[in-house]
Amino acid sequence: MRLELPATRKRRMVSMTPLIDVVFILLLFFMLASNFQQWRSMPLNLAGQTEKPNKLEPNFNVNIGQDGELTLEDSPVELENLTQMLLERVAGGANPRILIKTDAATELQTLVHVIDRISAAGISQITLGGIKP
């Protein structure tokens, strides 16, 4: 008894050319659709590059420690309370200058959070003073 088996089909090879074409079209689309402009900037002065501070304006030092601990004029302060503390100290006065000193191991995101809190207090003259010993 003889069984007739169906003829085996040849496996078709998937061509890589259309796949590569699709990848390049997607790459081109995303490159053209992207916006490479900065959507937000933070103006910072570097220490030593600004004019001499006005003696009438109060100056504050904000130190950021290694583990993110903050001190405002040598008194510890929490990040959540920094805006309120600055608002109380500046109450009705001129726009003060803030000098920020960081530790060498301070994370950039912590520095950005501190600058956001200072800006929320309405202070625009922020100077990044460098690494504290």
How does this model look, in words?
The protein has 133 residues and is an alpha/beta fold. The protein has a domain at 45-131: 2-Layer Sandwich (Nucleotidyltransferase, domain 5), CATH 3.30.420. It is 32% helix and 20% strand. It is built from three helices and six strands. A six-stranded mixed β-sheet has the order 1-6-5-2-3-4. Helix 2 packs parallel to helix 3. The radius of gyration is 29 Å and the shape is elongated. The relative contact order is 0.17.
Helical residue percent band: 25-40%
Low-confidence stretches: none
Characterize the biggest β-sheet.
6 strands, mixed
The number of E-state strands comes to 6
H/E element sequence: HEEEEHEHE
CATH hierarchy, class of the domain at 45-131: Alpha Beta
Shape: elongated
CATH architecture of the domain at 45-131: 2-Layer Sandwich
- The CATH topology of the domain at 45-131 comes to Nucleotidyltransferase, domain 5
Mean pLDDT score, rounded? 80
Number of helices: 3
Please give the radius of gyration in angstroms. 29 Å
Task: Please report which band the strand proportion falls in: under 5%, 5-15%, 15-25%, 25-35%, 35-45% or over 45%.
Answer: 15-25%
> Which structural class best describes the helix and strand composition?
alpha/beta
Strand order of the largest sheet: 1-6-5-2-3-4
Distance between the termini: 95 Å
